[in-house]
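Lab channel / #folding
Pinned by the channel admin:
"Please post every new chain as: sequence first, then the structure tokens as a reply. Keep commentary short and put observations after the output so the thread stays searchable."

First post following the new format, from NK:
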Amino acid sequence: MRGPLLRDHFDLTTRVSGGPGVRALADAGANITFAGGLARLASGTGVDGETGIVLTPSVDALPGMVLFAEVTPTTGNHGDLIGFATAPDALAASLNNLSVMIATGGVIGARGTATGTGSPQIATWTAATTYQLALVLRRGGGRFIFVKGGIYTNWTLIHADKVAVPSRVMPAIVRYDAAGG
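Reply from TO:
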């Protein structure tokens, strides 16, 4: 079994630990901090889609490719996207079809569905609770989204769909809506 193409434990300033990539930041307002192996995106700050982290260079988007993220939402405004980006300079727009959104009001949404319905609620979150998310690329296009944490005591499939998958992708985390989900 082959190891991860990219891995980031956020323990170095710019270089991705355990992998060949480089972490690129879009953070004009200094809203991202790194401490204790965690990346923190300040809540309710930044400009829509302009605060984020992307791992470059892009890699081939292959069926079975998995992006794991661990998140602990706080109270307040959220609109965080976690997924596969296609352009490092237009993070929010390029994450639309292949991301999961942690939104205001305790909503976990599937961003950019095949039906074009925006971010339908697929699960819920509770403040100060840690969740693990897994976004898996499907054979023939699309994604599976799994969650573990809070009321989801085991890995739980919360969404499956078929959406367009580009040939190359970059893992990314983006503050999508500074004013809230």
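NK: The helical segments are 91-94.
TO: also worth noting, Residues 91-94 form the longest helix (4 residues).
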